[in-house]
Design brief:
single chain; alpha+beta; 4-stranded antiparallel β-sheet; 13 strands; about 25% helix; about 25% strand; globular
Length: about 300
């Protein structure tokens, strides 16, 4: 089917989260015209017209959106594998590297090797409240493959900046599943992902790049707050931009950026036994090399 092939050729990746170079609005509109034109012989539209329309809508959204980086979901992290532990409370959150304000409209693009655009994904978006009290921390929202329009909900009423970092959690239990996520909206924040990285050189390279990103991000943090959140005075303890995540094999660490770079010596990790413990930490970024080496 040449039309289907040409529509799929808009994408640079199999999960349909990145467009090929050279794709323009006119490229998509030409395909739209073909899709809207009945066959000359039968007088019928393409039998998969609805499916292909969703693909064109997805491509159009990617073309016109201001997008954050593509995040590969680790399908080895899932609460479905924790049933043997005999207790609950662990989460399967994975950082998206984005923080968003309550009330902000986001578009979450989901790509998958399993299912078609518009079908349900084995993924949930987790929106959080920065510095929240227990019971007000998060809300999970089901996602579909393709384009998801979501308004960040208000989770709290107390006087502070409302909103916080975004996460995704895989709800399936199939190692063959592949998912990627891309966010339009919010603010990109530094993330260190060492999950499944066993090569010492690769780990060191990732940590070094992360430290450099942290330093650059922190230097402009207060100015960025003034640009994006001018209605509230800057307070490092309450600013939803002042956050970063570190994903290790056995846990995720959520860390205030300014605290991390302050180089304080005390490390508050909690127990290293629970899988994917969600904690706040005080330490320099280079310390994560040592933590990563003993997290199994």
């Amino acid at each position: 089917d040449s039309l289907e092939d040409d529509i799929f050729a808009l994408y640079a990746d199999d999960l349909h989260l990145t467009l090929n170079e050279g794709v323009e609005e006119s490229t998509i509109e030409a395909l739209q015209t073909r899709l809207d034109t009945p066959d000359e012989v039968s007088g019928e539209y393409h039998p998969d017209r609805d499916k292909l329309q969703r693909e064109l809508d997805n491509a159009r959204g990617l073309l016109n959106a201001s997008l954050q980086d593509v995040v590969q979901v680790h399908t080895g992290i899932t609460a479905q594998k924790d049933g043997h532990l005999g207790f609950t409370g662990l989460n399967a959150w994975q950082p998206l590297g984005v923080t968003a304000q309550a009330g902000e409209e986001l578009v979450i693009y989901v790509g998958s090797n399993n299912g078609t655009t518009g079908s349900n994904a084995a993924l949930q978006l987790v929106v959080t409240q920065y510095n929240a009290e227990y019971g007000q921390l998060s809300k999970s929202i089901a996602l579909k493959i393709g384009r998801n329009e979501i308004m960040v909900p208000e989770l709290v009423t107390f006087d502070a900046e409302h909103g916080g970092p975004l996460y995704v959690q895989y709800t399936g239990n199939n190692s063959a599943d592949q998912y990627s996520v891309r966010v339009s909206g919010g603010v990109q924040i530094p993330v260190l992902d060492l999950y499944g990285i066993d090569d010492a050189g690769e780990r060191e390279a990732r940590v070094t790049a992360y430290v450099e990103e942290l330093e650059s991000y922190t230097a402009g943090l207060e100015a960025q707050h003034g640009t994006l959140h001018a209605d509230t005075a800057y307070n490092a303890e309450k600013c939803i931009l002042n956050t970063t995540d570190v994903l290790l094999d056995q846990m995720m660490l959520s860390v205030p950026v300014t605290q991390l770079l302050a180089g304080q010596q005390e490390i508050k990790l909690g127990s290293l036994t629970p899988t994917r413990d969600f904690n706040y930490v005080k330490d320099t970024a280079h310390g994560f090399m040592a933590i990563a080496d003993c997290d199994a």
